[in-house]
Write a structure and sequence with these properties.
This protein has helices at about 15-20, 30-45, 90-105, 120-130, 150-165, 190-205, 215-225, 230-235, 275-290, 295-310, 320-325, 355-370, 430-440; strands spanning about 1-10, 50-55, 65, 70-75, 80-90, 110, 135-140, 170-175, 240-250, 260-270, 330-335, 340-345, 385-390, 395, 410-415, 415-420, 450-455, 455-460. It has about 475 residues and is of the alpha+beta class. Helix 5 (about 150-165) packs across helix 8 (about 230-235), helix 6 (about 190-205) crosses helix 7 and helix 10 crosses helix 12 (about 355-370). It is globular, with a radius of gyration of 24 Å.
Length: about 475
């Protein structure tokens, strides 16, 4: 018993004739592959279907698992209310999965349900699979804004749960690919769209799951994908297992990519512990970076390590460059893990008596008090990439024309509301994007008048010049 197989399945409602009204014929390759995948699932005779949906309740720092004895849903939002379904949940599996996640330090559970009804990311796969046949029950899981590694760990918890309960399960990763394949598509065109789809189909078609960690966050955002995190959780459920991988179809006639891949699981295969392999590579890379860090970054890292390991705030050490003791300035400390932001806290103007204390304070806050992320854990310390931005004087400007996203950060103000964005950030290419993000951070609506200020920074990271 355990994981019998896994399936990467899209969720276009137009596939359902009552919704497509003839347009579903343009997705015949997808429909045919869906029917083949559904037949393979039925042959595996799962007792429980674990379905991962990006349209289920989603939190930035928490994996939501649907509670209760079951749920129903229909396609009324797509003009086909008559297409309805009802499912029963595997409550025993949910309870054990919550215990496994808690034992691994993962923020996952049944709290915070926002919408009990089934979402279309769940219903489209179920329309073809029909989980009610053969007494199959459902476990419905949402995704999160947590790092990809934590999604993979959740997948490992799913496998462990199935094995502990002696439950035969199939995992379904519901997710469309890029939504930005065509100018006349619903979300327009981005060159990253077709590039993402080509790359993800190569990775998933071969079952080469370790490469899922190599997709930069900004690349995925520009591509407008919705299934990547589903795929990572599914990969975690197959951790250490041999798989027979097969890509059944890919097409995107409406400007959204739809791919179907199947994985038949068999036995153990030690070379397929992809997260372990990836993290070992990352630790080696971060260790090499540490040897290039200047005094500012090294100080921030030490502050983070002391706080995470011992819960203590680092005292200002001796032997730092004199400028860190004598000068005062606003500073931001940014933490990344696997290329994704893991925490960023700072101050526009100096708060502490010295720049050294400013860096220590903001390093501690970035790893433990950024409301967007859970606190950094000890096991992550060897995987963190750290940078420190020391801010120069700010100056008021009359218009966005005076900004340069590579050179200047921006401060957007409206009364007491103020948002800041640092310069030279990956994925921020225009002054308009820069201002829009700063507005959002401050809670300033698009129509509200604002004042603009700009500032320069000295960015310290591995390989930057010493203070």
């Amino acid at each position: 018993m355990g994981v019998s197989g896994a399936f990467m399945l899209p969720h276009p409602p137009i596939l359902i004739p009552a919704i497509g009204r003839g347009e579903e014929g343009r997705l015949e390759k997808t429909a045919s592959a869906y029917r083949e995948a559904a037949e393979r699932i039925r042959r595996m005779e799962p007792e429980t279907l674990v379905l991962l949906s990006p349209h289920q309740t989603m939190y930035a720092d928490y994996f939501h698992i649907s509670p209760g004895d079951g749920a129903r849903g229909d396609f009324g939002a797509f003009g086909a209310r008559e297409e309805a379904m009802e499912v029963l949940y595997d409550q025993e599996f949910v309870r054990e999965l919550c215990r496994q996640a808690d034992a691994q330090g993962l923020a996952a559970g049944t709290l915070g349900e926002r919408e009990r009804s089934l979402d279309h990311g769940t219903m489209v796969p179920l329309y073809f699979i029909n989980p009610r046949g053969g007494g199959c029950r459902l476990v419905r899981i949402g995704l999160s804004g947590l790092p990809l590694a934590m999604h993979y760990e959740l997948g490992k918890c799913i496998r462990e749960t199935a094995e502990r309960l002696g439950r035969r399960i199939v995992v379904v990763a519901s997710g469309d690919l890029s939504h930005r394949l065509k100018e006349d598509g619903p979300y327009g065109y981005q060159e990253e769209g077709p590039a993402y789809d080509q790359r993800i189909m190569e990775v998933m078609g071969k079952g080469d799951f370790g490469r899922l960690f190599e997709f930069p966050e900004t690349f995925c955002e520009k591509a407008g994908e919705c299934g990547h995190r589903s795929f990572v959780v599914m990969a975690g459920a197959l951790d250490g297992m041999g798989v027979k991988a097969e890509a059944l179809s890919y097409e995107g006639p409406f400007g959204v990519g739809y791919g179907i891949c199947c994985y038949e699981a068999f036995g153990d295969e030690p070379g397929r512990h992809f997260l372990t392999i990836y993290e070992e590579q990352e630790r080696r890379r971060i260790q090499a970076l540490r040897e290039q860090e200047d005094a500012c970054v090294s100080l921030a890292r030490r502050a983070i390590e002391v706080y995470v390991s011992a819960g203590a705030v680092l005292s200002v050490p001796e032997g730092l460059p004199q400028e860190l003791y004598r000068s005062r300035a606003g500073a931001f400390v940014s933490i990344k893990e696997a290329g994704a932001l893991r925490g960023c806290i700072g101050a526009i103007e100096a708060v502490q008596p010295s720049l050294a204390e400013e860096i220590i304070e903001n390093a501690v806050s970035a790893c433990s008090r950024d409301p967007r992320f859970p606190a950094v854990e000890r096991r992550e310390l060897g995987l963190l990439e750290i940078s420190v931005d020391v801010l120069g004087e700010k100056e008021r400007i009359a218009s966005p024309a005076e900004l340069n996203v590579k050179r200047y950060g921006v401060i957007v103000s409206n009364g007491a509301k103020r948002g800041i964005l640092l310069p030279d950030l990956e994925g921020v290419d225009t002054a308009e994007q820069q201002i829009a993000i700063a507005r959002k951070k401050a809670g300033i609506a698009d129509g509200e008048a604002v004042t603009l200020e700009r500032f320069e920074v000295i960015r310290h990271h591995a390989g930057s010049a010493a203070v």
